[in-house]
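FORM 7B: Structural annotation worksheet

SECTION A. Query
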Amino acid sequence: MRKLLATGVLALPLLAAPAAVFPALAEAGHGPKLLDTRFSFEGPFGTIDRAAAQRGFQIYKEVCAACHAMSLMSYRNLMDLGLSEAAVKGIAAEVQVEDVNDVGEKIERPGKPSDRFKKPFPNDAAAAAANGGAAPPDLSLIIKARPNGARYVFSLLQGYVDFDSLTDQQKAEFGLAKDYKLEEGKHFNIYFQPGEQGYKIGMAKPLSDGQVNYVDGSKNDLPSMARDVVTFLAWASEPHMEARKRTGVRVVLFLLIFAGMMYAVKRKIWADAH
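SECTION B. Predicted structure
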């Protein structure tokens, strides 16, 4: 597990943060600056840390899957993360999926590796009704949903703050109006839609230190778990990222060699002209 580059001060949640912390986080008119960290998949030579992604899948399965679908993922895709075929078959068989039998009757059967990840709700209306009127977003492409998506999700998962513990000075530093209040069912997250009436998110804090016990015994504090689940979601958003980067590097090397050869040919052809 890579160590976070963020300092201990930035490792939220800030349940009782001193007033001096907030000026360092808040950028006037733009909300707090995202937590500064690096992921293994960043850069032209970046790769997916498969151990971290497997742990991230465990978090998704145990925590996120209760509300969030991943409709573009099939269970068999997990073999690309290094899970064995037997393990994938076991994971898929844990869910019941709707199907039809040989005579066209609706049935439920254990999942198969070829099935898509089971959705937690039958439709968007049911999802919205169970979550205060807003359906939880599908996580298949969540990292690609906005610029710097990996850092945004990483920060969001650690950005929950106890609103009642904030002082008037801290509220002013976030640009909150005097009549600002949290409606029932809303939670204060410093990275969610900053602004006078922003920071209100319907999702309760999903992760806490030690919430998920990793099967490999890895560190399971909040920053580590946030990093792992972001790694998994980044892989899910672009499963063929590593192949794309390898192809890109090969193309660049080919073009450089080709350009060098063309320059040598040009010098040879025009040598007498000079």
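SECTION C. Observations
Residues 1-29 have pLDDT under 50 and may be disordered. The chain has three domains: 1-73+117-239, 84-115, 241-274.

SECTION D. Sign-off
Analyst initials: ____
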